[in-house]
Amino acid sequence: MAPSKASTRVTTPDVPAAGRGVWLRLVGFVLVLAVGGALALLVTGDTGSLREQVTGAGAVGWGLFVAAYVAATLLLLPKNVLSVVAGLTYGAALGTVLVWVAAVLGASAAFWIARALGRDGVARLVGPAMARLDEWVARRGALAVLVARLVPVLPFTAVNYASGLTVVGFVPYLLATAVGILPGTVAYVVIGAYGSDPGSWPFVAALAGLVLLGCGGLVWRHRERRHRA
User: Fold this and answer.
1) Is a pLDDT exceeding 80 seen at residue 130?
2) CA distance 68 to 37
3) CA-based torsion, 106, 110, 113, 117: positive or negative
4) Helix 47-56 to helix 79-126 angle, to the nearest 10 degrees?
5) How far apart are the C-alpha atoms of 89 and 84, rounded to whole Å?
6) For 110-141, what is the HEC assignment?
7) ∠ CA 92-101-160 to the nearest 5 degrees?
8) Residue 14: partners with Cβ closer than 8 Å, 6 or more residues away
9) Of the four listed, 105, 127, 161, 172, which is most buried by Cβ atoms within 10 Å?
10) Which of 66, 86, 75 is nearest to 23 (CA)?
11) How many CB atoms lie within 10 A of CB 36?
12) Angle between helical axes of 15-41 and 79-126 (0-180°, round to 10)
């Protein structure tokens, strides 16, 4: 008996699409480096003068930083480093606002990009994280997105793309993201702002907050494993 076409069908990877993904990440990385270089050109003295000069650039400097942060968010680059840089250059208050706005914009863009790419395209970007988020959302809806933002159970960018393929609507996703990223955003920015004085109470409080969030992620993972078992 001859095998059916369905049983002999072989799925081949979309090499051109994968290649485009690599090039997009490379372009994003170059963009981040370019912005970092532009900021470095403004440095003529110590950290205090750096903060004064960058903030003196006004809306232009803010726009460059937000663009770099959005690119890092979309291209799976380490955004937390930029959060620390924001604290170093803009201070705790302004740095938090810029990072929060950029993270929300990047998360929104990734959500709609995922809707356009479809499951196959997103699977190449986030891998098994997509299936895990699917399972969470099926049971808890937007609460799953909120928990994933509050505690580091899944990478930020993976949640962005994977959420675009779940049953969660954009508005609940956006609200859960805007609220959930605040604690981590504040912590990383404050660490950058007070990094020159690690004994200060803001630095210690931010570090303790990150430890608590990390512990929360471990507890959540343990509960999820027990639930599946």
Assistant:
1) no
2) 12
3) positive
4) 70
5) 9
6) HHHHHHHHHHHHHHHHHCCHHHHHHHHHHHHC
7) 120
8) 120, 124
9) 161
10) 75
11) 16
12) 170
Q: What would the two tokens of residue 196 be? A: 């020159």
pLDDT digits (tens, 9 = 90+) for 165-224: 877 889 999 999 999 999 999 999 999 899 888 888 999 999 888 888 878 777 776 676
Q: Label residue 2 left, alpha or beta by phi (over 0 means left) and psi (-120 to 50 means alpha).
A: beta
Does residue 106 carry a pLDDT above 90?
yes
Any idea what DSSP says for residue 3? P
| Tokens encoding 114 | 């995922």
Banded pLDDT at 5 (limits 50, 70, 90): very low
Per-residue pLDDT tens over the stretch 14-45: 434 444 544 554 455 455 445 554 544 444 34
